[in-house]
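re: ur question from earlier - yeah i can do the single chain one, its not a big deal. heres the input i used so u can compare w yours
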Amino acid sequence: MSAAADAAPVGDGPGGPSADGAPAPDRTGAAAADGATTVLFWDIDGTLLSTARAGVFALEDAAEALLGGRPDFSTLDTAGLTDHAIAALALQSEVGDASVESVHRFVSIYERQLPERLSMRQGTVMPRVRELLEALGGRADVLSLLLTGNTRAGARAKLDHYGLAAHFADGGDGPDGAFSQDLGSRESVARRARELASERLGQALDPDRAFVIGDTPHDVAAGRAIGARTVVVATGTYALADLERLDPWWALEALPEPREFAERLGLAPAG
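and the output i got, formated as tokens:
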């Protein structure tokens, strides 16, 4: 049985009438019009890969450098937060102060320490991620961008470490997408991702051909902030039942095989 056989496609789209007469969610992506590009916005942690919490070591390094001690990050609810929000949470919990300057100093130390710290745990690329990215990378009708709470440097370190960087290369010194750059919300990152996609396409983003793919409620909120359809996988810290309650467009245990993924999103068969 495929990973998506137990999936629950549950929201974010128009469809036929439901039992109570209201429009039912469209459970499949409408086929893309000729020449239309489907934009996929990818989260990193819990979606593309798991560092097995190796990033916590770099967070602890930053905390020790600034505060002289190492907070217990296992007691902080950081899933889906941006790197800047995590820094603010740690600072607030330890010293009751999370000024903009202290947050940026914290993040800067974290970014310097992260590449070395990633090797301290045996992380992994999530199931079928490599196959999906390879299949999608050869398509002219798909644009994959990152939409992540990682900073650009943090995203680069993780993608380099796990061999995924080539799938999001921007032709410069970093991965392509929108990242945590200040204390703005995940939704603000999503809006920057939408603007970037529109620039790449040379026209306004069609929300029916835009999909935010993640593993937390923050990813669902980010997708809805830009009108995109949301795909959530239970490969992070949230169970499938918890994700289903968010009423995303598609909730599933793990990413499916490339063919099934393409069919569900309404992509034309690969030539």
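Strands lie at 38-42, 49-50, 124-125, 142-147, 177-178, 210-214, 229-233, 250-252. not sure if urs matches, ping me
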